[in-house]
Write a structure and sequence with these properties.
The complex is a heterodimer of chains A (about 500) and B (about 160).
Chain A (H helix, E strand, L loop, with lengths): L2 E8 L3 E3 L12 E3 L6 H13 L9 E6 L9 H8 L7 E6 L4 H14 L5 E8 L8 H5 L3 E8 L5 E10 L5 E2 L8 E2 L2 H23 L9 E4 L4 H11 L21 H12 L5 E7 L2 E9 L13 H5 L2 E2 L3 H4 L17 H6 L1 H4 L3 E5 L5 E2 L15 E5 L5 E9 L11 E8 L4 E5 L13 H4 L5 E12 L2 E10 L23
Parallel strand pairs in A: 2-14, 4-5, 4-6, 11-12
Antiparallel strand pairs in A: 1-7, 1-8, 2-3, 6-7, 8-13, 9-10, 12-13, 15-16, 15-17, 18-19, 18-21, 19-20, 21-22
Helix pairs in contact in A: 1-2, 5-6
Chain B lengths: L26 H16 L8 E5 L7 H7 L6 E4 L5 H14 L6 E5 L45 H4 L2
Parallel strand pairs in B: 1-2, 1-3
Helix pairs in contact in B: 1-2
Classes of the chains: A alpha+beta (about 500), B alpha/beta (about 160).
Chain lengths: ~500, ~160
């Protein structure tokens, strides 16, 4: 029986919420940073999902999103490369609809069932924009989920599925628009969401001989808390059955929404649980999962709960628009060299350094000549993206041309556990004050770091991806008391 | 009275990478290949080199040569003189030996012209905007190699 073998998720560090200047809502939403996008978040979720699983055993990657960085270039290949998968694999992007994630999940299961792959990774991520300060923008959140689909050690089997197609302009974004458009609010819900989803769920249950009482957890798309609650009633589920949509903590994460809620459900699920997933967008995709004993073996995932708990309240609502709404168009200016990137692809995406066969010294970028023993061409590839590191030394550059909210730019010389030292950039650091006095506290020598896949400044129509270092995500802890009294400079304690 | 450097310096080893687009070779890869061929030809090791002259119009310091070959604590001078860069590196390396300052030095030249995404001699590397390099040369006719046939001829004297 095919189904979910492993899961992972990524919720961005930064939240808009209590403590964000200019934010008037009691809720929080998670926002991707200026160096993040749907692709970088998919990589983070994929790596969380893979954990210690041998990456050579994955036979494909399906990337689902409505906000893929390119219109004609696969994001799946980049994501697969950053996750250090093989080359002889299936790669496919599923796009253009809020239900792209569930469609991809369903197709992945069918791929495994058909014998075309033993294991497939599915990533679902979104980074949608509404018009600044609109209701959409205030409810939209960013995030990603990933699932490893297989037929061995399955933790949640697929018990059934059903899909309907619906051609409707309730919600859309043309290829020239950065923001999502909707038709008149009441029409959108009466003729779209509330008209299409309930009959589809009812039909699915009927075809599978089930009633709502048989469902342990119901996950379904909803644009906001109010509509989501209404739908729950309409579908006939008890509040205890409805999986917490987390609108007040993450927001509406578009295509990633149902997948992220599925991860949240799996984190708490018990063997025997039946989890219904129903997404909506130009129709509906419905999947039913049954949890097996193998669920207890899935451990140490960051998933949703852990990522939620480790956060930073971003200090300014105005500055947040600089992340993506006002981001420079990559079509302008000079960009990176495609041929140079291709030549160095192994060092850039899976982040391989080299390990000397003669003396064991690890070097990054990969070298032909060993710096220690001078042996030439005695190197094996050595992946560094999953290794922790420590700051050997660092420079805080207050004059570097980075956005104000990211200043100072911090360049590091890092030492990876196990060996290897290189120059890296630091992201997701605690805000450093404009005076240099607290540099030692904010970016101390010896600070522990993890690797994160991010975006550099693009140009020439090219989105430029590379790894950066960041302080361990676990070092961001929420204050034990409730918000309203920020611990330091409007952020969580570290 | 100035002395010539004639008969004071010998080329003891030579190495050369096959010219070409070399998509799969980085500048560092090619430096390693050429240098090690020269070391082997000369019967010496990398650590015998006492100083180096590195000719490149695109790479602006000697550090990449030092990093690729893992030289330890020797001076590496980056030299540039547009199309005469190679000759300039070679010449200065010869002066170093002729002066008696060093016994064994290396002159190495390296260029990656094919990473711009365009044909011809456009600005080095994908990062520079077209025309950033050499735009002070108000020379008609475009790229320099197209002018070389003209320079030795009498027509050059009639151009202003």
């Amino acid at each position: 029986m095919a189904g979910i073998v492993s899961y992972g998720a990524y919720v961005p560090l930064r939240r808009l919420g209590q403590g964000t200047q200019g934010w008037r809502l009691p809720s929080e939403k998670a926002v991707a940073y200026y160096d993040e996008d749907s692709l970088t978040m998919a990589v983070a979720a994929a790596i969380d999902c893979l954990g210690d699983i041998d990456r050579q055993t994955v036979d494909g990657l399906y990337f689902a999103s409505t906000t893929s960085p390119y219109k004609e270039k696969l994001a799946a290949t980049t994501t697969a490369s950053a996750a250090d998968l093989r080359n002889d694999i299936l790669t496919m992007d599923c796009t253009d609809s809020l239900r792209a994630g569930m469609s991809a999940l369903r197709i992945a299961v069918d791929t495994v069932k058909a014998g075309s792959a033993k294991r497939l990774l599915v990533t679902v991520s979104d980074c949608r924009l509404g018009s600044p300060r609109s209701e959409e923008d205030q409810t939209f959140g960013d995030g990603a989920a990933a699932f490893l689909i297989g037929d061995d050690n399955v933790a949640a089997t697929i018990e059934g599925s059903y899909s309907v197609s619906n051609e409707l302009l309730d919600l859309w974004r043309s290829d020239n628009s950065k923001v999502v458009h909707t038709w008149e609010d009441r029409w959108v819900y009466e003729e779209g969401y509330f008209k299409v989803l309930p009959p589809a769920v009812a039909e699915f249950l009927k075809r599978n001989g089930l009633t709502t009482k048989d469902i342990t957890k119901a996950i379904f798309y909803g644009p906001n808390a109010r509509r989501h609650a209404e739908m729950g009633k309409m579908l006939g589920f008890q509040p205890t059955q409805v999986q917490d949509p987390l609108f007040s903590k993450i927001g509406n994460t578009g295509a990633a929404f149902t997948s992220m809620m599925l991860v949240a459900a799996l984190e708490e699920a018990k063997p025997g649980d039946k989890i219904l997933c129903a997404t909506y967008g130009n129709g509906a995709d419905i999947l039913l999962f049954k949890v097996t004993d193998a669920i207890t073996k899935i451990k140490n995932k960051r998933g949703i709960k852990w990522n939620l708990a480790h956060k930073m309240i971003f200090p300014s609502y105005d500055a947040y628009f600089g992340f993506h709404h006002q981001a420079a168009d990559v079509e302008g200016g000079g960009g990176p060299s495609a041929s140079a990137i291709a030549r160095e692809a192994e060092a850039i995406y899976p982040f391989h350094g080299s390990k000397c066969r003669v003396c064991g010294t690890i070097q990054y970028p990969p070298q032909r000549v060993c710096t220690k023993c001078q042996s030439k061409d005695q190197m094996d590839p050595y992946r560094l993206s999953d290794k922790k590191a420590k700051i050997f030394t660092r420079v805080l550059d207050y004059a570097a041309p980075v956005p104000g909210y990211d200043a100072p730019s911090v360049d590091l010389l890092v030492d990876w556990e196990g060996g290897g030292r290189a120059l890296m950039s630091l992201t997701d650091k605690a805000p450093v004050s404009p005076v240099m006095k607290d540099a030692d506290k904010a970016v101390p020598i010896g600070m522990e770091l993890e690797m994160t896949f991010r975006k550099l400044r693009g140009g020439g129509g090219i989105h430029h991806y590379y790894w950066k270092c960041m302080p361990l995500r676990e070092s961001w802890k929420t204050p034990e008391e409730t918000t309203g009294r920020p611990a330091r400079e409007g952020q969580s304690q570290r | 009275m100035a002395e010539s450097i004639k008969d004071k310096v010998a080329v003891v080893g030579m190495g050369c990478v096959k010219f070409g687009e070399n998509w799969e070779k980085s500048a560092s890869d090619m430096m390693v290949e050429a240098a090690y061929e020269a070391f082997e030809d000369a019967g010496i090791e990398s650590k015998d080199i006492q100083a180096a002259w590195f000719g490149s119009t695109q790479i602006s310091t000697g550090e990449p040569l030092s990093a690729a070959l893992k030289f330890n604590y020797i001076p590496v001078t980056r030299v540039e003189n547009l199309c005469a860069t190679g000759a300039e590196a070679f010449r200065n390396a010869c002066f170093a030996v002729a002066s008696g300052a060093y016994d064994v030095v290396m002159a190495l030249g390296c260029e990656k012209l094919k990473d711009t995404g365009r044909g011809g001699l456009g600005g080095g590397g994908g990062e520079e905007e077209g025309g950033a390099r050499g735009s002070n040369l108000a020379v008609p006719g475009g790229e320099l190699p197209s002018l070389f046939p003209e320079w030795p001829t009498d027509t050059w004297h009639t151009m202003v």
